[in-house]
Each structure stands twice: as structure tokens, then as C-alpha cells.
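Design request, C-alpha cells follow.
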């Protein structure tokens, strides 16, 4: 890389408990992954974003006919508008290490990697809070009402309790946590799922609020289970969280099948993670050795699976 180039990284994430209710001010627990997105920026003749392995390139100034590419272009243009005027054109090349539409925070990781690469190239210093704000501006293009959890995780990684608009609370696990993540292969649109929950909330606010409160109490219990190293209890709480997400119609038959396979292979608990409607399942294993049997059972059924370790 030459001296006028910059590099950046954003973390992917898994939500242990609390997705969707976190949009409505309830707490959620999430863990950052090493995998996420990496980006390189260098001076060029036009403001271009290229993303691999998607094989997509968009120019911030050129409207795209394809709706998905146009969303990506608009999000990139929103980020670029936050830079100096007149802008020096930069080409950002990003590589996704997690799939998009899988509930693993790929979109927020991409935005954070881009901003970090641009900042490194232009010699701009930014606080984590400012970085989260910029990432949320990008996320708003893709889904109107992000809680900010994906952006916070993409910037910081680690294990956190997140409440919208409040300082994050780092959680220290009593013992290492061993998870298996499996991908249904179905694209889960966070935007449609967040909108679907919003419609249910508008139709029957009391019922939706009751479900969000129930999830909030699972999250509070889960935080102490993580701190106490009580993984059997944590697994039960994850199962209960999945049941409540299912009542919000966020699960699919593939997610149900994956949860069943993981539990039969010895998982202490399993649930959808992220937006749902497709995307990924998260299963808790008793320890790192036991992730292998769970991942193998899921792979044998045709689902891509990998282990995620959260160290104590
Ligand atoms: C997506 O990873 C998590 C959701 O709760 C949406 C959000 O918090 O913005 C579904």
C-alpha cells in the first residue's frame, strides 16, 4: 500500500438476546466478532466503492438503476457528504468477511471499515461516538430505524449490554462462551423485519410492549448468567427469547430446523440472531470442544456453520 492509502476494519456481531426489542429501548446483549469487513482507500479520479465478494462497484455521483446497488450508492454518498468540501476523490475497496443479510452486522461493519479507511487516508481523527453516528447515517439508508447496536458493535467489538441512546455496558463473562453460528442461506431483510414488527406494534401496542418487556427481563437474567458463567441458564433464556421472537413472526422453517438440529446435537440453547426472516441461528455449546459436534450436525443438514468464541 502506498503512503496515500488508508486501511480500516469493522467488526461483525452476534446478538445473544434482545434483537428487535432493542429498537424499542429495551436492552440487548451482543458480542463482536473478529470477522467483519476490511477496507482500503486510495486517491482516485472518482468517489467509488467496490465491495468483494459481491463483485459490485458504485460511483457516489452516479444513480444506479438496480435498487440494491442504488441503496449502496446512496449510503456511500451519505458517508462521503460528511467529508471536506471540495472533496478529493477516493476509491474504497472493501472485502466482506461475513455474509450480508445474515444478521451478523455485515452492513454496519462495512460502513465502519469504509470510514476508518477514508479517515486513515485523509488523516482525520474521530472518536468512537462520532464513528458510530456516521455508521448509523449509513444504516438509516438501509433500514429506517436502526437501534445503533450493529454500529456500536462494528466500532468496538467485545461483549456488551446495549440500550439505545445510553453508554454501553461492557460485560465480563464468568467463563468463556462457545457459540455455533449457522446460516440458513435465506436472505433476511432487517428493514422488512423491523417494519413488520413496527406494524404489529401499531396494530396492538399493548401486546407488543408486553413481549418487549418479557424479552427485556430475559436479557437482564442473561447478563447475570453470563457473568456467573451459568451457561445452562443462559441457554434456557436464549430458547425463551427465540420463542418470543417466533411470536413476532420473525422465524422461518429453516431457522426452526437449525435450532432443532443444534439442540439435538447438544446445544444448551439456540435462537435466531439479528433481524430474522432468514439469516443466521446462534447456538450455545457447553464448551469449545462441543461446538464441533453441533457444527457438524448443521453442516450434515446442508447449513454453513462456524464456531465463535467469546473469551472470559
Ligand atoms: C439487527 O442486527 C438488530 C435489530 O434489532 C435491528 C436494530 O437493532 O437496529 C433487528
Amino acid at each position: 500500500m502506498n503512503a496515500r492509502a488508508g486501511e480500516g476494519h469493522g467488526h461483525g456481531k452476534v446478538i445473544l438476546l434482545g434483537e428487535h426489542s432493542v429498537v424499542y429501548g429495551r436492552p440487548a446483549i451482543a458480542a463482536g466478532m473478529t470477522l467483519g469487513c476490511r477496507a482500503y482507500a486510495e486517491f482516485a479520479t472518482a468517489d467509488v466503492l467496490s465491495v468483494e465478494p459481491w463483485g459490485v462497484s458504485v460511483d457516489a455521483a452516479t444513480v444506479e438503476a438496480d435498487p440494491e446497488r442504488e441503496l449502496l450508492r446512496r449510503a456511500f454518498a451519505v458517508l462521503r457528504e460528511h467529508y471536506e468540501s471540495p472533496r478529493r476523490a477516493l476509491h474504497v475497496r472493501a472485502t466482506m468477511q461475513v455474509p450480508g443479510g445474515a444478521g451478523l452486522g455485515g452492513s454496519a461493519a462495512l460502513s465502519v471499515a469504509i470510514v476508518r479507511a477514508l479517515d486513515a487516508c485523509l488523516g482525520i481523527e474521530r472518536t468512537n461516538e462520532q464513528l458510530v453516528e456516521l455508521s448509523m447515517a449509513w444504516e438509516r439508508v438501509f433500514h429506517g430505524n436502526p437501534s445503533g447496536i450493529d454500529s456500536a458493535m462494528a466500532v468496538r467489538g467485545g461483549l456488551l449490554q446495549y440500550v439505545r441512546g445510553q453508554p454501553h455496558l461492557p460485560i465480563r463473562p464468568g467463563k468463556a462462551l462457545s457459540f455455533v453460528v449457522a446460516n440458513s442461506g435465506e436472505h433476511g431483510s432487517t428493514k422488512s423485519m423491523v417494519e413488520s414488527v413496527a406494524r404489529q406494534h401499531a396494530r396492538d401496542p399493548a401486546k407488543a410492549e408486553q413481549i418487549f418487556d418479557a424479552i427485556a427481563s430475559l436479557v437482564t437474567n442473561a447478563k447475570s448468567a453470563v457473568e456467573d458463567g451459568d451457561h445452562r441458564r443462559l441457554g434456557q433464556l436464549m430458547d425463551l427469547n427465540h420463542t418470543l421472537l417466533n411470536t413476532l413472526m420473525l422465524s422461518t422453517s429453516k431457522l426452526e430446523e437449525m435450532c432443532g438440529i443444534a439442540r439435538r446435537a447438544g446445544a444448551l440453547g439456540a435462537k435466531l440472531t439479528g433481524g430474522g426472516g432468514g439469516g443466521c441461528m446462534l447456538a450455545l455449546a457447553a464448551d469449545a470442544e462441543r461446538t464441533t459436534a453441533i457444527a457438524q450436525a448443521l453442516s450434515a443438514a446442508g447449513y454453513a456453520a462456524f464456531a465463535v468464541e467469546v473469551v472470559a
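Comment from the thread starter after seeing the answer: thanks! The radius of gyration is 19 Å.
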